[in-house]
Amino acid sequence: MEEERVKMNNMKTLYKNEAIQKKNRNRIQYQDSVKTSYFNLIDLFGLPSLGKSDKVLCEWVLENNLGDVVVIYDWKSSTNDPEYVTEWNFGANGDTYSNVFINQIKEKIEKKIDEKNLVC
Q1: Does residue 112 surpass a pLDDT of 70?
Q2: Is the pLDDT at 69 greater than 90, yes or no?
Q3: In percent, how much of the chain has pLDDT > 70?
Q4: What is the spatial distance between Cα 53 and Cα 113, in angstroms, rounded to a whole number?
Q5: What is the pLDDT of residues 72-99, one digit of tens each?
Q6: Extents of the domains making up the chain
Q7: Are 57 and 85 in contact, with CB atoms under 8 Å apart?
Q8: Runs of H (alpha helix) within the chain
């Protein structure tokens, strides 16, 4: 099982009720952050899972094939338009496996930034 956890390549973006359920069930809290564009995140993960809420403009709820959940979100942005957000947070439950999943997602984002020479 440990070897399986290292290969967390398959991930999907969850939407609507499933995204809300998984987010709430996993006790998501801040773990890390990354600088990238809103459009880069859309290119990698599709449209956001959830739209505007009290302190968040949008968020992606991602799940790997082993059930680990990571949320990418902005927090109290100084803009009302996610297109101008460049600092994105990662939320997860903080266990070792979710942190491995976060690192894989960060690598994917950073690789995409390097490919396109994007500057945030």
Answers
A1: yes
A2: yes
A3: 87
A4: 27
A5: 999 999 999 999 999 999 999 988 888 9
A6: 2-116
A7: yes
A8: 2-6, 16-25, 38-45, 96-116
Cα–Cα distances in angstroms (integers) from residue 86 to residues 10, 33, 35, in the given order = 25, 10, 5
Please give the full DSSP string across 31-46, using - where no structure is assigned: EEEEE--HHHHHHHH-
Residues 6+ apart with CB under 8 A from 22: 14, 61, 63, 69
Block residue for tokens 């069930």: 25
Q: Is residue 118 a contact partner of residue 36, using CB atoms and an 8 Å limit?
A: yes
- The Cα-based distances of 97 to 58, 62, 72, 78, 110 in angstroms read 24, 14, 16, 32, 20
Listed residue (29, 33, 17) closest to 93, CA to CA: 29
Which pLDDT score is estimated for 9?
A: 57
CA distance 18 to 21: 5
* Residue 30: half-sphere exposure toward Cβ, Cα within 13 Å: 8
Mean pLDDT of the residues in the chain: 87
